């Protein structure tokens, strides 16, 4: 089967590509606001998450190996990056090497650690494996907290190398993805659009293009892995491991490959994430991060590339929407707008107010917006798994089939 | 945390004294793990659900005790003049009852619709539940420490060289009593239904057992036991009360569950005690070893779990899965 077998798929992918080009310049019709710095930061984060989620999807969705340890592998990648690429200090190690060394190395070292873990996965199956990988996260947290030379202080962390391409250490960067600057020449045709005129590119837009290239390459690799011999052997192991072995699929080899490739994705994503955020504390690589990726896959639709992207954007961007909605309700209350009743029902304006569940003050009773987002995250997991086990991808399939068969319902 | 307490005690102690005290504290910690593990295993056996919300439920139970015992004085306010111990025990029992109800509600709303779905999907549902319960519980307690108002406080019993907190003795006694009650319970008719359901849900149904009712009972017991574990993990000497970190106790009880075997009641108790002792002994003797770093005792359970799993992939007493093509 081809990568994009039908004309519809080719056209929609091309359309998506054009939209992806326009997005950072606020040039998307109707969705121009997505080019704002605040949204670009979120979108960049979503794209980085997508890289890691693609990797986990190969392991969980395709090879059927349940892993809660993705945050651990991301941390391995990130710390490899910072030791190779970071600046040495009095208390921390750092070699100051350029990005073309530390970024691939982040993936490779994470993959090697994945290979080290794989024998356990061959021996331990199903839910027991989930607990082993859960243990990895806790052992990892212990390591990062204590390896101050690598991770920096437990509460301060350390700065990560920027996304800058230099030939060797100490040289001026040839391309910097982390500073504002002029528009790249290959993007100048964008000024032909009548409603766009830009000279400068923000660092967010640059980071966006950097990450976008990685996302596209990794998505294509994942798609190709899934439809070749390796991916099919993983699917066989997922569906029935003994049957796969009987048919001549080497189970141990398949699982090791799956762990290695998935960890490679995680390592690269972790390194880019830390570099874009700029500074990470050891506690950032906690279980919640792992859960986010598993949820992305389950909400998106396990085993599908399109599902991974839908799930990632849903999970990363929903908190922002919730935040905006809450602030909007708050202004409705204060300005006595037509939705003030909804705001009153929802927001706890004073400590004596008993009805509201969300409070905008940092302390006191009532969930903060962050807490609200965590609760909503939990509710979403439950609702999605109960109502639509195939995730957003499943909804998409239903919608598609509805239009395919229209006016018939079957 | 208990590791630090033990180290503080251990400075300047004779070797025997040091070991005996570590053993005592370890058994007490292990008893907490065992209580949590028992609830977890009962839920898993009966309903095939890995309950990641166990920590959240434990913290909520501990918070309810704190609320009933120190804030609203339920049911003591209607009882007239009673001793502090009795009043607290009654409050705790009410809280356990409420937790059992909450367990039933959780099962009915979120677990029942998922029967027949892959185990991992159901596990993810409980992870979602954990986020909800933990966040709202933290909000209830204002993200601060809420004292449980237990009658024992920081009082200590001395038996020879062994110095052990009263609460720790109570924990071990409660574990013993719970184990005996459970052993008896599994011999009763309801317990038999539970065991039959654990063996094979469809066959149990064909024998006239109401599997739905068994699910509800298992969750009620499981949530109650989790709350018991939560209570004893948030009294002295472990802490001054229930706080946002109480729920994390479950993530240290998980290795105990796995070491014992996901579906073994006996394994839950033995695994819990083993892990507790290992954690405290490691904290006592390795706490001062500089190159091991801070908090090594905390990951000893996980390391132990990995070693055990490499030797026995289904834990010490777990039933190996029968693999058919």
Written overview of the protein:
Chain A has two domains: 40-284, no CATH class; 304-410, no CATH class. Helices cover 64% and strands 3% of the residues of chain A. The mean pLDDT of chain A is 89. Chain A is globular, with a radius of gyration of 23 Å. Chain A contains 15 helices and six strands. The longest helix of chain A has 31 residues, at 305-335. In chain A, strands 1-6 form a two-stranded antiparallel sheet. In chain A, strands 2-3 form a two-stranded antiparallel ribbon. Chain A has a two-stranded antiparallel ribbon with strand order 4-5. Chain A is mainly alpha-helical and 410 residues long. With 325 residues, chain B is mainly α. Chain B has one domain: ABC transporter involved in vitamin B12 uptake, BtuC (Orthogonal Bundle), CATH 1.10.3470. Chain B contains twelve helices and two strands, in the order H-H-H-H-H-E-E-H-H-H-H-H-H-H. Chain B has helices at residues 2-10, 15-47, 54-72, 84-111, 119-140, 166-185, 189-199, 201-206, 211-233, 249-260, 265-286, 296-311, and strands spanning 156-159, 162-165. Chain B has a two-stranded antiparallel sheet with strand order 1-2. In chain B, a hairpin with a 2-residue loop joins strand 1 (156-159) and strand 2. In chain B, helix 3 (54-72) runs antiparallel to helix 4 (84-111) and helix 3 packs across helix 9 (211-233). The radius of gyration of chain B is 20 Å and the shape is globular. Residues 1-7 of chain B have low confidence and may be disordered.
Ordered list of secondary-structure elements with their pairings:
The complex is a heterodimer of chains A (410) and B (325).
Chain A lengths: L6 H16 L14 H26 L7 H16 L13 H25 L3 H20 L1 H4 L6 E2 L4 E2 L9 E2 L4 E2 L17 E2 L1 H25 L1 H11 L1 H6 L4 H27 L1 E2 L6 H14 L4 H31 L4 H7 L22 H19 L3 H15 L5
Antiparallel strand pairs in A: 1-6, 2-3, 4-5
Helix pairs in contact in A: 2-7, 2-10, 2-11, 2-12, 3-4, 3-5, 3-10, 4-10, 7-8, 8-10, 11-12, 11-15, 12-13, 12-14
Chain B lengths: L1 H9 L4 H33 L6 H19 L11 H28 L7 H22 L15 E4 L2 E4 H20 L3 H11 L1 H6 L4 H23 L15 H12 L4 H22 L9 H16 L14
Antiparallel strand pairs in B: 1-2
Helix pairs in contact in B: 1-2, 1-11, 2-6, 2-7, 2-9, 2-10, 2-11, 3-4, 3-5, 3-9, 4-9, 7-9, 10-11, 10-12, 11-12
